[in-house]
Amino acid sequence: KGSNFDRGPSAVDGKCGVICQVACSMALRCWARAVPVRKASASASAPLRRCWREPLREPRATRCNSTHCMSGVEPPWYAKIPIVPEDADAVLAEMPELALGGQGSSAAAAVAGADARRYADIPLDKVFEQDQQVPSETTATASSAAPATQFAELSNGVRVAVVDRGGHCASVGLFVQLGSRYEEPEVSCMPHFLELMAFRSSGHLSHIRMLKTLEQLGAATSCRVGREDLLYQIDVLREYVPVVLPLMLANVLCPSVLPEEVESACEHVLEVQKNLEENPENLVTELLHLTAYEGNTLGNKLYADEKDLTQFSAENLRKFIQKECTPDRLILVGVNVEFEELCKWTARSFAEHPLGEASPTGSPEKQRPMTPAVYTGGERRLERVNPLCHLMLGWEVKGGWNGQFLASVTVLQMFLGGGGSFSTGGPGKGMHTRLYTDVLNRHHWVESCNGSSVMYADSGLFTIYATVVPKHAGDFISVLARIFKSVSQISEEELVRAKNALKSSIHMNLEMRAVMMEDIGRQLVLSGKVGTAQEFGRMIDAVNAKDLADVLRECLKTRLTLVAYGAIEKVPAYEEIAKTLAVSIP
Fold first, then answer.
1. Which of 58, 325, 371, 449 is spaced 20 to 30 Å from 22 by Cα?
2. Residue 573 DSSP one-character state
3. Nearest CA among 554, 583, 556, 552 for reference residue 412
4. Rounded to 5, what percent of the chain is helix, strand, coil?
5. pLDDT tens string for the chain (586 positions)?
6. d(Cα 19, Cα 349) in Å, to the nearest integer?
7. Nearby residues of 293 by Cβ (< 8 Å), 6 or more positions away
8. Strand duo 79-81 + 150-154: pairing
């Protein structure tokens, strides 16, 4: 059932969709004892399957000539998916068999036990042949071409993206296009409150039953808030996706938002602030954003603090969910799940729910309107008891993810590399990167030094983070100026190494299903398009040494953002640091 947000903290009525009712009803029953369920009929979803092949629009005739940015990537083709109410019994017939009550509690468990007893009398030193070899995810992807990403759009505007690599475990993520950048500074903490309320009680299950159901399914859940999106994630065996999908969607469709759960979540606000204080790198990164875009969009604080607890109420959360969690801002991404199955069960989850009504939003390429980020620069210093001086310096990357410097600044990041004094390295972070050879290997007072970048839809940051012995804070600025000036002298070997390291890092990370799921969702949030590893590889190959010097030059022309934390008494004045780095422009 759906939530009526106008009728008090725990009032829940209305309709939420057949699949939500059926799945949660089954979960309640299976929580106590497994329930055998009938197999799906072959013709049950035939009418829906026909419309899934219908394209939303014609492909573009020409491709952009840009080689360094996302403008050269074509937007995806979306299939139309209608949201049609169905009979509950027909939906129940297609639900997967669940054996959650222990051995012998269902027909499925009995069959599994019979299969296991087939090998009871075979000694361990005897060779036998299995009846069927099930290909692993690695074998399936290695023996054939990389599976393509398929896209669909529900009639209410919800977008779906699927990559099926044949693995047994699926990763499903729900991206909501909301975040601190879209809110006014005084209420920018609301997305963080929503994260703290994830996977609690809904219109179908209490919190404890929600946890017990997910536990017995072997599902792992998480929620992460960002400045431009909120991600709900579930990892589960692929056959149980129809069961966990409505449980995940209940976070935005029919959350109970009980006062006692809000009170419990309030305690985690203080824990988050404590964890930030205990992890200087995360704290400095957050402070860098607050300083770089002071008072606007990306400069709004990401995490709530003690001062915001007065806004953390059930009523405010209901109003926020009703306002922000609209269908056109929802993106569902699945890896290792069948495209047609995820589309079908997603459509069923919205059937007979107010959010299932057709939306006039139009093309899915249209991104959520946003106020342009205004980069301000500046400095922020926090003196704390700490044996080291933590320094983070940042400059704007104009255009961010959708700008012309996307590939160039990423290759520059890999070229600079860096790490800790005792790091064993990795792709792009080995002993041959410039920050290792010219900083860490030459100056013992540098504990760590990293070059990195972070991209948003319309802006980005290129950063250098270092921890140094406090009395050498001024010396580090001079060393960094020398490193920047040397970027104009990059050998072909260094350039090729950086580009190969970046490409190998992309391919290595995309082998993990959770990373691939988040990558697809984040790209859709940032640009409405999804670039493949091969397309990014071509962007990287097109970068030359001059491009690295050019992008660094453009970054250093923007106003410096400086954050100093810990033992900062020897850190030079802001104007002195800015002047030293200004003359280092390659």
1. 325
2. P
3. 552
4. 45, 15, 40
5. 333 333 333 333 344 444 444 444 444 444 433 333 333 333 333 333 333 333 333 333 333 336 778 888 999 999 999 999 888 888 888 888 776 555 444 554 455 455 556 667 778 887 766 555 445 555 544 445 679 999 999 999 999 999 999 999 999 999 999 999 999 999 999 999 999 999 999 988 999 999 999 999 999 999 999 999 999 999 999 999 999 999 999 999 999 999 999 999 999 999 999 999 999 999 999 999 999 999 999 999 999 999 999 999 999 999 999 999 999 999 999 999 999 999 999 999 998 777 756 555 445 555 678 999 999 999 999 999 999 999 999 999 999 999 999 999 999 999 999 888 765 554 445 678 999 999 999 999 999 999 999 999 999 999 999 999 999 999 999 999 999 999 999 999 999 999 999 999 999 999 999 999 999 999 999 999 999 999 999 999 999 999 999 999 999 999 999 999 999 999 999 999 999 999 888 8
6. 5
7. 299, 373, 374, 375, 376, 459
8. parallel
Exposed, middle or buried, 32 (CB in 10 Å: 0-12/13-18/19+)?
exposed
Number of helices and strands in the chain (H, E): 20, 13
The single-letter DSSP state of residue 297 is: G
Helices 339-350 and 241-253, axial angle in degrees (round to 10): 40
Q: 335 is written with which tokens?
A: 């890896």
